[in-house]
């Protein structure tokens, strides 16, 4: 990977996991390790194999159901006979849920943040400077204290002069104040517009102007970005800034003089001195207009109601292992993304503690963590966390890299333990987590788990497909089940969710209890609900989590949202799936990714990309197919560490990574590896690209080439690299 900073893709979490965090894992194990290996590797497996034979009976997780709307194959969760709408009686809006949960858990700790002690800049060998941060422990506030702050902020907004008929926007990295500001707005029925901190200028201007935002809430870093576009923003009157060390003595640019700029604490103080009665919303009120980063064009604003949020929250509470005040959640993904906002809503409802961090400071070796300072996970010791697949892939790769560098007993113990646990997981639950599993934890895996604090018991994964290898790695090395979520902004993340005891890979579970999931035949693509052995078709979601549509875009709303004769709202996702006999959904394709080649073969770009991503040389890949050609090509961002290691072994000389990527023998090696991976994945010959272009620079949300969830933006990539793609067909 490249060394440039910014975004999850080259955040230290993705780039530097696998340095100091793993060194302690592979120390000498001593005599007890050898004895333990003998006992576990020979005696215990023999005993367990004799006692526990065969696999557990397959559990039914979803049932077919008759529903309204377009004909198809629909499934509901086995936990419910009727869809759930609220987590408990009376919690029909997020404002009500927030107040009730805060009162119920008033004395329990709720939101925690780390105090910044100091910062410094270090200079790398190439002359670039990197910021290093020194943090202290987490400082906590209770549910009762947070409720008071949100109530004060709500009153302060009114006293500041915010027009209650207009919208407020939050434009900031994830932090406790982001959550407090959101809940404060809800108490006055103010619709909140969420904007990714990594959004480009054009998209930022579009989202703020389209929604006519009058109050913008941001951090000091984003305040600086606003200066460049302030002349293009026509509705903003107030700007509220979260305090940090950079806000002190901050000079306000002349271009912002037309705005009233106030600190977050001043707004709280204003509300505390002059409280205003709450003006609470209804379940059908628009809580959030969430702008998706989207894979094409300008972002679309999805209108999310209070009812949508509480419905997804209620549904997830039914399928996750019991959550409560003893759990600690690590919050670090963008709150402007539906996945994180849904997760934090669940934690609020269940009374969990939430500690805030960032992808840049997550582990002890994250590149913004000063040497000697603990990362967020080490200090917080979370029991629950969310992750996108890119993060879990890097955790896996970092550990395996360190394992590969060690030729001693530690490597052998890891390999034996991993194989035994893998065999147990794929056979017997008891074998995976029973006596044998406990012994392997003590000898091998306990040390690995300290990377994420050592207490993780559940991981929520979403945003993109998770590879089976990474899922198994987390199951085994972190000792935690993964709940794979499938959902969209348009369904407030609520579509399907894998059960905690489901150890299968490649699936996203049964429908959440708040919705139905229906497959509708797509004849053009060859996916039919009558297909055997499993029904297939476009995934359509109906129920309480389906949102109200796109802001000021009725044409697009009418295209993908439908209301049936019973009044149920359905969203047509454009994804293609199949239902397994136990009622679990598997995503197998995407309608927009289907291209017909010159000789009539259909190629699914997303399916092929997912298969080829498992190639060790690949950090990211985009397949491209021209309908006037009989083969496809690919743009590949290679894994820098893996490629440079191969080049060194092959004796290839180069000045920099860019030059290395341009060498024909390097492209040939990567292409041959892709071909092997493709054949292993049983891809057809026409699905494997015979020509590729290696690109040295990573694709990041900041570059606009991938979304915040790291899905590739196909149209933007095609436009940026049109010349490279053209040459591949010459």
Automatic annotation (TrEMBL):
Q: Where are the transmembrane segments?
A: 29-52
Recorded GO MF terms: long-chain fatty acid-CoA ligase activity
Source organism, top-level taxon? Eukaryota
> Where does it sit, as one GO cellular component term?
membrane
User: Where is the AMP-dependent synthetase/ligase domain positioned along the sequence?
Assistant: 132-551
Q: InterPro entries attached here?
A: AMP-binding_CS, AMP-dep_synth/lig_dom
| UniProt keyword list | Membrane, Transmembrane, Transmembrane helix
PANTHER family found in the cross-reference section: LONG CHAIN ACYL-COA SYNTHETASE 8, LONG-CHAIN-FATTY-ACID--COA LIGASE
Q: What is this protein's record name?
A: AMP-dependent synthetase/ligase domain-containing protein
Q: What is the originating organism of this protein?
A: Carya illinoinensis (Pecan)
